[in-house]
Here is the input.
Amino acid sequence: MAEISGEYNINLDTNKLQASAGDLSGFNQTLSNNITSIKYITNSIRSNWTNESIASDVTQSLTKIDECIQKLESVVFPVLNQYVETMINLSVATDAIADKTIDN
Here is the structure.
């Protein structure tokens, strides 16, 4: 950020910020769709797997996959959603402030 005569020149392009937030939201949705597919696959494996051993490599792998899914759903998605919301709010607020004059 460059300082010009005691003021900071932020030069925030709100259109790019909104586009970036939209992209991030889209990536978040794609990841969510992929997780739904992974859940379907893991459930199919569980239903059709015939190995009697509870400690099989497949069972252990499915457990790890479930743990990863749980972290994505409980930690990553909420943070990404909040980040997107914050970016959009910042963009809207910046536009609203930029449209004001000293008389407003």
The two ends are 27 Å apart (CA to CA). The mean pLDDT is 85.
